[in-house]
Amino acid sequence: MTGNEIGLDVGIESFYTDSNGYQESNPKFLRKAEKSVKHAQRRIYKKKKGSLGRKKTRGIFARKHLRISRQRNEHAKRLARNVCKSNDLVAYEDLQVRNLLRNHCLAKSIADASWYLFRQWIEYFAGKFGKLAVAVAPHYTSQKCSSCGVIVKKSLSTRTHACSCGCNLHRDENAAINILNLAKQARDGQSRSNAVGVGISTLVGESLLEQILT
Ligand SMILES: [Zn+2]
């Protein structure tokens, strides 16, 4: 037991923001690799169907794609392992894959897919280390004040949470604290706590990425 508990809020701005105010930045190597994969993919269609050139460019694309999948998986795995090692409870939002795929903003989709992969590793390591992983419903987590509970309306571009009660936080830190609080409620109520370290295959996250990247 570590005595630590953590809430994670996923975003585009950073890979995640936790309830302690720490922001894990997005890996730049992945963003670069994504560009390169997209470029390789476009090149395929410039070659004649059935030609040797097309076969070659297809091979280049497949190799790059596999490489980025592995890098992303390693990155998600390493972060998830660290988070589960240093906390007894890990809370995050229960984002639905179905909703993720409906999103048309590419950057957002890729971030969501990475997050999904990360989440699966969290559940895997939580099970392995005997920690509690709790997914909470994503309701008002960014709008609610984590200190006094009132709703403080903000648009997507508002990056800070400033409440009349005196609570001033980064928007995502406020959300992460709400996520942690919801998870604690669920645990203490013993009612809605689910997702306790099930060793789900990471393939789901990978195939989600395939759908987005291809
Ligand atoms: Zn407040």
Description:
There is one protein chain. By secondary structure, this protein is α/β, with parallel strands linked by helices. The protein has one domain (5-213). It has 6 helices and 7 strands. It has helices spanning 28-44, 52-85, 97-101, 106-129, 171-189, 203-213; strands at 5-10, 16-18, 23-24, 89-93, 132-136, 160-162, 168-170. Strands 3-2-1-4-5 form a 5-stranded mixed beta sheet. Strands 6-7 form a two-stranded antiparallel ribbon. A hairpin with a 4-residue loop joins strand 2 and strand 3 (23-24). Helix 1 (28-44) packs antiparallel against helix 2 (52-85) and helix 2 crosses helix 4 (106-129). The longest helix has 34 residues, at 52-85. Residues 191-209 have low confidence and may be disordered. Residues 145, 147-148, 150, 163, 165, 167 line the site of zinc ion. Zinc ion (ZN) binds at residues 145, 147-148, 150, 163, 165, 167.
Span of the ends, CA to CA? 42 Å
- Whole-number average pLDDT? 83
Distinct compounds present: zinc ion
Compute the number of helices: 6
Summed up, the domain count is: 1
Amount of beta strand: 5-15%
Largest sheet: 5 strands, mixed
Strand arrangement across the biggest beta sheet: 3-2-1-4-5
Shape: elongated
What radius of gyration results from the CA coordinates?
19 Å
Secondary-structure element order, N to C: EEEHHEHHEEEHH
Which structural class should the secondary elements be placed in?
Answer: alpha/beta
The proportion of residues forming helix, as a percent range, comes to 40-55%
* Residue windows where pLDDT falls under 50 for at least 5 positions: 191-209
The count of strands amounts to 7
